[in-house]
Amino acid sequence: MCANLVHPTDSGESFTVSSRYLAGTVVSSLHKLKDIDNKDGGFFVFGDISVRVEGRYRLRFSLFEIIRDEVVHIQSVVSDVFTVYSPKAFPGMSESTFLSRSFSDQGVRIRIRKEHRIQM
């Protein structure tokens, strides 16, 4: 699975110079993990992806399958619209979700926020 940054209207247009906009790992392999109901599932985890330029965006996640010497596009899905803030306007990190903490407990390398902080 790979992630690309797209406009909030998702007109199909990606940001062509993704290294200018995205930082971190933009490709993920499938992880077999337990979900919040303790059931096995397959998850693609993007634990360190971030956007460098403030604005409103979506992420398009595209699933590919490698079959012998060929890469086949299977499906794409887009995220909800999100806002990237300037450092001065950033409202602070919220507490990590139960699912995120569960993945971390299972060995996935993601940063976990244990308490909610609000910048004043």
UniProtKB/TrEMBL annotation:
Keywords linked to the UniProt accession: Nucleus, Transcription, Transcription regulation
Gene Ontology CC terms, in alphabetical order: nucleus
PROSITE patterns to which the protein is assigned, alphabetical: VELVET
Taxonomic superkingdom: Eukaryota
Iron recorded as keyword: no
Transcription regulation among keywords: yes
Velvet domain mapped to chain residues: 1-113
Compartment annotation: Nucleus
Protein name, as recorded: Velvet domain-containing protein
Species assigned in the record: Rhizophagus irregularis
